[in-house]
Structure formats: C-alpha cells, structure tokens
Specification:
Pfam families: MFS_1 (PF07690). By secondary structure, the chain is an all-alpha fold. The chain is built from 19 helices and no strands. Helix 12 runs parallel beside helix 18 and helix 18 runs antiparallel to helix 19. The radius of gyration is 25 Å and the shape is globular.
C-alpha cells in the first residue's frame, strides 16, 4: 500500500509539473506574439530618404537658430540699439533656444503615440508665419522681435526638432549614432549657409526686412520638400499607462540619467556663448567686418565634420568615451579666447571650436538614447532631458550678455561659459564611472 500511494503521488506531481511547464511555455509564446522582436533595416531607400528629409529640416530650422549670431550682431549694433542692452537682446535668442529644446517635453510623448505628421505640418506652418511676421517688425520695437523670433519661431522649430531626430530611430539601431550624426549635420550646414546669406542680405542692397522674407521663402520651400521625404515605419507605441509626472519620477531615480541631464544643462549654458557672440567679438577686436561676417560660417562649416566623424567611433568605444574629450577641448578653447585678438587667432578658434562643439551636439541625442532601457521610453527620456537643457540655453547667453556689459568686458562671459562647460564635463565623467560600475555588477551576477 505505501508503495502504491507513493507511486500515485509521484505520478500526480509529474503530471502537475508537465502542466505548469506547458503553461509557462504557452505564456512565453503568448508574450513573444504580443511583443515581437523589432528588426531594423539599418539602411535602404526609405531609411536614407528619411535621413535626408530630416537633414533638410535641420538645415532650415535648427540651422537657422545657429545663425542667430548674425541677428544678435545686427540688433546690438543697429536695429534695437541704443534703446536695449546686449543682455536684453540676448534673451531673444536664449528664449528661442529654450523653446526649441523644451518643446520636447510634449513632442517626445506625442511622437511615441503616433503624432509625427501632425507635428511636422503644424511646425512648418507656424515657422512660415513667424518668420514672415519678423519681416514686418520695426526698429527699436523689442516686443515685436521677441514675439515673432524668440517665442513664435522657437515654438515652431521645437515642434519639429525632436520628432525629426526620433524618426531616424525607426530605421536604425546598430548604426543609429551615425545616422543621427548625419541627420543633425544639416543644422551645421545651415549654420554655414544662413549667416553668409543673412549678412549679404542685411548689409547689402536688400536690407533687413526683404532679407528676412527671402530667407523665409527659401526655408519654407525646403521644409515642404522635407515633409514629403520623411516617413515613419514602426506603429505607435502602446499606451504604457504612464503620465509625464510618473515618467519624470521614474527617470529621477536613475542616477546616470539625472547626472547626465544636469551635465547637458551646464554645457549648453556655456557652449552657445561663442556661437552667439563670435561675430560681435571679432568686430569689436578690430577685425574687418567683411572677414568677421564669415566667422560663424567657418565655425558651423567645421561643425558639419564634427557631427559626423566622431560618430564612427561610438560603436567601438561607447558614446560617453567619445563625448568627454570633445567637451574638454571645448572648455579649453573657450578659455583660450581670453588671449585671441587677431584675425588668424579668431579663424583658428572658429575652426577648432566648430569641430568639437559640433561633435558634442551630434552625440547629444545618441548619448541620451543610450540611457533608455527600451525604445518605448526613448521619446520621453529625450523630451525631459531637452527641457532641462533648454533651461541652460535660456539662462546662459543672457547671463553672458549681462557680464559683457556695454563696456564689452569679454573676460567675464568667457570665464562663466568656460566654468559651465567644465562642470558639465565632470558630470559626464561621473556618469561614465557609474555606468562602468553597473556593467561590472551585471557581469558578476551573470557569472
């Protein structure tokens, strides 16, 4: 009897284990069906057509933001002077930069849920309206310029900026950093073309108002072409039943992410000072205006190379390992401007700073994307980070303008910008150390 009872229990247990195993297998199969593995083409006609469309859009939008140094110089010396100070005028560009970045707080989640095309079309129409309204402003009417260029144009560019970068991730995973670098280089090329064009228009026979209209017509036409070229590939992400506040609280417990966000805010607070003030600095140092007008174009020209070449190293060395040396060089170059007073020194600075600042800007999005645990939260992580980064852009240039004063005390903003970039670099180094430690702990657990 005892033997028979024991035999029956063994058979029952075996039967139960088989059922549990079968149920577990079925659950895994069901999960596999509900969450299929995403295959990225890593190239192809539609993929590179989308990258080209994003490149054109970056050229016409963020590339125009990179040309704000021309507007800043024109406003300070002629259009809004002497009624408004350099610091007050700097708020126009800084608010525009804030909105370009911080709109990602909304557009990141909207992209995740499938609103790519409505955002692109809305941004294009608003961009056209605001730029043509800028051409109707009058001299010394600060509020008109601020509303059309600082507020309106910033919102318009911000609506299109993050969705354009995120759509590239629909086609690339292994080569994502390279594709993003190529796409974002459009803004650097725009930073070459737009300053030359705007200087020729503003200071030539066309004048400010007709010059703005001419640039508006060009950029709106390019945006229309970009809208036709860009295509989404993946379906909208399923609703993760999370709010923006819940995402923020979740990400705030991720130490590497929080430190990186703080670092990007500090770096952007300082890195745009040379871009916005380079042309004005060159002219005040006695460099011929005909040569000074090309300094921004040279800076943005080398930025094109900087946004592409370092991205080839990311797959091998890691994004932080590439970013950190580039930011260190930017900080050193910024301090070097304390001793630059000649045309040769200014041009050399423009070449070097353009390359390394372009490398940082080109690696910015891949750096944030590398911290996402899955593609479903990529838009939210980038949107939150871009918002705080925009705050740095909002504060950086007005503080630099206030430190500069009407007496043009250049050493003050140079030291401020250099310290911001240096502290941001220290944040990235801390993040790299934390990520390396986490990787070692995972390897220990796996072994």
């Amino acid at each position: 009897m005892p033997d028979q009872s024991y035999s029956v229990d063994v058979e029952k247990n075996a039967s139960t284990e088989k059922k549990q195993t079968a149920a577990s297998t079925q659950d895994v199969q069901d999960e596999t069906h509900t969450q299929p593995t995403i295959v990225f083409p890593e190239g192809g006609w539609q993929a590179w057509s989308t990258v080209a469309g994003v490149w054109i859009m970056q050229f016409a939008t963020f590339g125009y933001t990179n040309a704000y140094g021309v507007y800043n110089d024109f406003y300070v010396r002629e259009y809004l002077s002497p009624k408004y100070s350099s610091s007050q005028i700097s708020w126009i560009g800084s608010v525009q930069l804030l909105l370009v970045m911080s709109m990602g707080l909304v557009t990141g989640r909207a992209f995740d849920t499938g609103y790519f095309y409505p955002m692109i079309l809305t941004g294009t129409l608003l961009y056209a309206f605001c730029l043509f309204m800028l051409s109707l402003t009058q001299p010394e009417q600060y509020y008109q310029v601020f509303l059309s260029q600082g507020l309106g144009l910033g919102i318009a560019i911000g609506i299109t900026y993050l969705p354009g970068l995120c759509v590239v991730s629909h086609y690339f995973h292994r080569r994502r950093a390279l594709a993003l670098g190529i796409a974002s280089s459009g803004s650097a090329v725009g930073g070459v073309v737009h300053p030359i064009m705007l200087n020729k228009l503003f200071y030539g026979g066309v004048g400010f108002h007709q010059g703005v209209r001419a640039s508006a017509a060009l950029n709106v036409g390019l945006l229309a072409i970009a809208c036709l070229m860009m295509r989404t590939r993946l379906p909208p992400k399923p609703n993760r039943n999370t709010s923006l506040l819940r995402d923020f609280l979740t990400f705030s417990r991720d130490a590497p992410y929080v430190i990186t966000v703080f670092g990007t805010m500090l770096v952007i607070c300082g890195i745009y000072y040379p871009i916005f003030f380079l042309q004005l600095n060159a002219i005040k140092n006695g460099i011929s205006p005909s040569l000074a007008f090309y300094t921004l174009a040279i800076l943005n020209g080398t930025s094109v190379v900087g946004r592409v070449l370092p991205n080839f190293l990311v797959h091998r060395f890691g994004v932080y390992t590439v970013v950190i040396p580039c930011v260190v060089v930017c900080a050193v170059l910024n301090f070097c401007t304390l001793g630059i007073h000649t045309a040769a020194g200014t041009l050399l600075f423009a070449v070097l700073f353009g390359f390394f600042s372009g490398a940082y800007i080109g690696l910015f999005a891949p750096m944030i994307a590398s911290l996402a645990r899955n593609d479903a939260e990529m838009g939210s992580r980038m949107g939150i980070c871009f918002t705080f980064t925009g705050i740095g852009g909002l504060l950086g240039t007005p503080i630099s303008g206030a430190l500069l004063t009407s007496r043009f005390l250049w050493w003050r903003p140079i030291v401020f910008a250099g310290m911001c970039i240096t502290c941001g670099c220290l944040c990235f180094i801390t993040t790299l150390v934390l990520l390396s430690r986490q990787a070692r702990e995972r390897r220990k657990l796996a072994s």
